[in-house]
TrEMBL record:
Upper taxonomic lineage: Bacteria, Bacillati, Actinomycetota, Actinomycetes, Kitasatosporales
Similarity comment: family membership: Belongs to the DegT/DnrJ/EryC1 family.
Protein name (record): DegT/DnrJ/EryC1/StrS family aminotransferase
Residues carrying N6-(pyridoxal phosphate)lysine: 191
GO molecular function, one term: transaminase activity
UniProt-listed Gene3D superfamilies: Aspartate Aminotransferase, domain 1, Type I PLP-dependent aspartate aminotransferase-like (Major domain)
EC number(s) stated in the UniProt entry for this protein: 2.6.1.-
CDD domains: AHBA_syn
GO biological process: one example: polysaccharide biosynthetic process
InterPro entries xrefs: DegT/StrS_aminotransferase, PyrdxlP-dep_Trfase, PyrdxlP-dep_Trfase_major, PyrdxlP-dep_Trfase_small
Domain of life: Bacteria
Organism this protein belongs to: Streptomyces rochei (Streptomyces parvullus)
Active-site residues, Swiss-Prot/TrEMBL: 191
Amino acid sequence: MFRLPVFREPLHVGRPNIGDREKLREKIDDALDRRWLSSGPLVRELEERVAALAGTAHAVATCNATVALQLAARATGVQAGAEVIVPSFTWVATPHALDWIGLTPVFCDVDEETAGIDPAHAEKLVGPATGAILGVHAFGRPCPIDELTELADRHGLPLLFDAAHALGSTHRGRPVGGFGSAEVFSFHATKFINSFEGGALVTDDPRVAERARAMRNFGIGEDREVISSGTNAKMSEASAAMGLVSLERVDALIDQNTRNHRLYEEGLAGLPGISVRGQAPGERANHQYLVIEIDQAAAGVHADQVHAVLERHNVLARRYFHPCCHQLAPYSDRPETHAPLPLPRSEALAERVLALPTGEVIGEEEIDGVCRIIRWAVETGCADGAPSTTD
């Protein structure tokens, strides 16, 4: 017996978590009553909460994480025209943030277990034009922080981290956020903690924090004098209100994501060629992304085929991150700037991974249905139809 589609309403990857609406309205009403709508007390409170969660001395809230990455590069002294070593297995926003301010992304291969930048390959890419190294904590799992720190220190380079996926996760028992020269979080609507749209730079370096605060406000320092070039990267009070309400539920959301991760593991256990990507052993993980790998040789189907079957049944999975950044315009179109090197581990990983729905709107019934579809797809070689949800 078959039913098409299995789900009447679409199941999305990254569907926003919504906190206490009444508390949100109260905070926004307070901002309206104060007639202080940008860079006010709610933003400062959010910065304090984020710094506490990240275990850092400073947090600088911004209108989004892309501009926070740009501020991080500028505030740590990376000059226009410099090269920045960055993994190709990441969302294209990471290299775009660099490219947009005149920096050249130099794409590095990854370690397939962590999906993070490969320090050995990064070492080979360091040259006279290198201005920084930018690691990415893909799917919230910390990249090889210790090895990258040693590499950056040895070459005297700033070390930055795109921690958009990693708020609330830990490395060696320490919260992600306090490593390198600066790290950047995203509070985009798709992140498990969101501020409608927003981001934050976190750091223990007071000079980096001071420069970033000025740069996000047209280069204006605390004494209201212009001290540098800058841009408009300020966060609104409404966004900060949403972020604060969201942060109140951080532990509950992590618990929900962790339960979902376990349910997916149980639902897909024993299925040839299908595995749920794990997090760092012994560390806290936010599990905001649920990612499976599909080994075509063992499963008999490709990730694209499973993706297509899921989509026919209203499960809107995502091929994060396929193609890799070095295979995308504008980088693939500029071989004179971006050497068209093969990055075999990045490319192989991108062929295998598929992100599935999780979060507060996904529960046991939905996960059971998604796992049934995947099982059916593998067992039948992705023939037409769908598994019954009633058998």
